[in-house]
What does this fold into?
Amino acid sequence: MDLAGLMHELGPEFAARAARHDDEDLFVAENYGALKSHGVLAAGIPAELGGGGAEHRELGEMLRVLARYCGSTALALSMHTHQVATAVWRWRHDRAPVEALLRSVAAENRMLVSSGGSDWIAGSGKAERVAGGWRVTARKIFARSKAAYTSLRGDPSAATMCALMVSCSASCSSPSALSRM
It folds into this structure.
């Protein structure tokens, strides 16, 4: 896939919405829909895991071109792309248990959300198995990509990576709320 070329194709439509997104402090959900429909969220995942197999250089060029059209979309996509690239590096070099996460992103067109460097410091929460699911209690700082999917992947009680993706509109006030997501 020619990612830079695709950004030039999609870019004018994104640029037409950029000022409204910035002026009204809106998430670029329409732009993400277009990126998803073109398989961009899985572009950096190795082909053997169901992704596009794009290299770091290609992803960087894609983001550079996209930023010319809509900086907000490029920033949000760069946060997702960074999380994917980190997981891919760990899968290749550390044999980290992230294969299921990467396959899920590729197969289900999922967006990973980051709150920046704080994602890599010690966690502030815990997950407890309860009847019907899990009770997750934690403190997570603000993450801008609020149109994220609602999902809990992995076994929080295991010593493996657990990806918690919860939308800002999700209600998680009870154990049954997580099991319904």
